[in-house]
Amino acid sequence: MLWVEKYRPKSFDEVVNQEEAKEVLASWICHKFKAPREFCSKWAKKRSVEAKAILLAGPPGTGKTTLVHALAREINYELIELNASDVRTGERVKQTVGRGIREVSLFGYVGRMILFDEVDGLHAREDAGGLEAVIEIIETAKIPVVMTANNPYDSKFRPLREISHVVNLRELSEKEVVAVLMKICKTERAQCEEEALAAIAKSTAGDLRAAINDLQMYLTGDRVLTLDKIRRDERNPQMSMFKVLDKVYKARWFSEAVKVSSSPSFDWEQYFTWVLETIPTVYKDLELLAEAYDNLSKADMFIGVVKKTQEWELLRYALELVTGGVSQVRNKPRLPPFIKYGFPQRFLTMSRLREVRKRRELLARYLSTSLHVSRSVVNTELVYVLSALVKMGQEKIVLDKLSKALGVNTLDIRDLLTK
Predict the structure, then answer these.
(1) Which H or E run contains 162?
(2) How far apart are CA 121 and CA 123, in angstroms?
(3) Which of 25, 174, 221, 340 is buried most, with the most CB atoms less than 10 Å from its CB?
(4) Is this prediction's pTM over 0.70?
């Protein structure tokens, strides 16, 4: 599971240092709509806002979308969420929102709320009335409408700003980002140097989401993070793969996408694995998916020929297909400012297996030394005895003693003995 989702704040209190935005949003909700008295007494401290909608503005990773999710959870509202990159035409906007408003909730919510995420991803001319449909919904909706945008100050969004109250979220400081990362390290039982976390915070420039992604990457397969490790891994192309993918997918021309592969640090084998799993994240339309995967399969054929014949001059054709071919599909839509790329499941699975093997070796080494027997005896005989004791109800004695001796969580040892 991505840590940005695992550690997404569940309440207003958990949203990092956006007190001004929280108070404005709460005051608006409490004044115009129904909200719990306890919530309103705690957070509605600003003068009432008369706007028909709220527009949360700020750089990526400051918590705009998270804040809306936390609000909906706090006041028990069902959230109808639309992303401008997915629902672009006026017809689709009205259809999606209209269906959500008309249908009866089956989960006991006291109300509904609409979230238009990344609304600055809409284009007034290209998106066939999408912006006009959003404005029409704001004008007529009887439920709260909240929007998010990285930069809503383009002139084309003036009609939207005129009927909304713009709330600017502040950029997070390095100290604030480090505090969140430190909390995650403790929860994950990872040993993280504060200097290492400060380096991550500095490199992501206040983008908490990017910082958490980087932290998960550094800690994949290892639970120790030092500043020296970050300095070594700064030269590792896998660490910057998010940026590489962004450059490829958002390239305006074929040559611009292909140029990415000419970087000295470009690792085409790692990149191939990443792009294989991220294409469905970027392209939602089946025709776009088919074309991108078709170019990827042709690149794979070239790579197979290169490895078989050692004719490495053919590799450039594979690189053109895997970068430019994937990027410049026909009828490609304009992509949103932020795309949530996930770690390839292959890497995560390999990391988990490495971690399991590491714990098994630690357990075998401890038992071998303590009982003066070979590791083969431990693996073929003793592990089964311990497993039987755990299943017979003696798990507290077995697990507690091994946990203290090895410094490994009892749940991890239980998993090793019962699987």
Answers:
(1) helix 158-162
(2) 7
(3) 25
(4) no
Dihedral sign (CA 394, 398, 404, 408): negative
Q: Residue 239 and residue 267: Cα distance in Å, rounded?
A: 11
Are the C-beta atoms of 21 and 55 separated by less than 8 Å? no
In the block, residue with structure tokens 């997918």: 249
Residues whose CB is less than 8 angstroms from the CB of residue 295 and which lie 6 or more positions away in sequence, other chains included: 321, 322, 325, 326, 329
The dihedral built from the CA positions of residue 59, 62, 66 and 70, taken in this order, carries a sign that is negative
Q: What is the full per-residue pLDDT of the chain (419 aa) written as tens digits?
A: 678 888 988 888 899 889 999 999 999 999 999 899 999 999 998 777 788 899 999 888 889 999 999 999 999 998 888 876 555 566 767 776 766 666 556 567 888 999 998 888 776 554 556 788 888 888 888 889 999 988 888 788 888 899 999 999 988 999 999 999 999 999 999 999 999 999 999 888 888 988 888 888 788 767 899 988 887 765 454 446 888 888 899 988 898 888 888 775 677 888 888 898 889 989 988 999 999 999 999 999 998 888 888 787 888 899 999 999 999 998 888 888 778 777 676 655 555 555 556 667 777 777 777 778 787 777 777 777 777 777 776 666 666 777 666 665 666 566 666 65
How is residue 344 written in tokens?
């390839």
